[in-house]
Design goal:
46% of the residues lie in helices and 14% in strands. The chain has 11 helices and 8 strands. Strands 1-2-3-4-5-6-7-8 form an 8-stranded parallel β-barrel.
């Protein structure tokens, strides 16, 4: 198993690479940093070149990216444009490949949320077409797997639960599209962790955080503990990341990692 830490909620800035954070992630013992893909895509050529060399110097990989699409790249409704989507993906996924990325998390609720008047069925049809026509050809080109993320109903109005995410995976029916489970979204949804047994064959990545993006470093809530117990029972051995704030002190990241490894052993 490989353990990562998402940079987005722990970084001092969300518009540039936080190299101090990357050094803390490395020092705490993580295998990889999980960057927002839309940040990677937005960097100038100079800044992206610095990122590639900086990651090598620090000794971190970028196994996984999160935040697949920015809000400006619409995925549902009448403003969804395959030409715009392809242009974004060519740059974003090409850069992800240069960083060694193997998985991209498809959450992106601001881009996928259904506009007024668009039904769930229409949304599923649009996302299925986008994945098949725009995304999967680049997955094949760059050997990248997409993992679908269900996002709780606070910020999101489409693909909220694990069964709904699994429905999209089923419709696309591709080896390049699989599942993600996020403990925070599951907790906010009061989602039954037993559903993990049904989607487990497709499960390829996990996000861990308590509600409000709290980093669990001294123990787990009942909701998070139930998810991790199932993963341990099933012998989960793929990638897993904290998608959380940086904790309460300089030792927080290391404490959280040790606790997670003990829980999954």
């Amino acid at each position: 198993m490989r353990f990562g830490f998402c940079t987005d909620f722990a970084a001092a800035t969300r518009t540039a690479v936080d190299y101090d954070l990357l050094r803390r992630i490395k020092k705490a013992g993580y295998d990889f940093a999980e960057f927002p893909l839309m940040l990677i895509e937005s960097l100038s050529e100079e800044a992206f070149g610095k990122m590639v060399s900086g990651m090598k110097e620090i000794g971190l990989s970028n196994d996984v990216c999160c935040n697949f699409f920015p809000e400006r790249v619409r995925l549902t409704g009448p403003d969804a444009d395959h030409g715009v989507i392809r242009d974004y993906l060519e740059r974003a996924m090409g850069r992800a490949h240069r960083l060694g990325t193997k998985k991209i998390v498809f959450g992106s609720c601001p881009a996928r949320n259904l506009p007024e008047g668009v039904s769930e069925e229409e949304g599923y049809q649009q996302l299925t077409a986008i994945l098949k026509e725009c995304v999967i050809p680049l997955c094949a080109k760059y050997d990248i797997l997409i993992v679908m993320e269900a996002i709780y109903s606070g910020p999101c109005n489409f693909i909220i639960t694990l069964p709904e995410a699994m429905e999209l995976v089923r419709r696309v029916d591709s080896p390049y599209v699989a599942m993600l489970a996020d403990t925070m979204h599951m907790a906010y949804n009061a989602e039954d962790p037993q559903y993990l047994y049904q989607c487990y064959p497709s499960l390829n990545h996990v996000h861990v955080a308590e509600k409000d993006r709290i980093l669990p470093e001294d123990g787990y809530s009942e909701e998070v503990s139930a998810v991790l117990k199932i993963l341990a029972e099933k012998g989960y051995d793929k990638t897993i990341s904290f998608e959380a704030k940086g904790g309460v002190g300089p030792e927080s990241m290391g404490k959280a990692l040790r606790l997670l490894k003990a829980q999954l052993s």
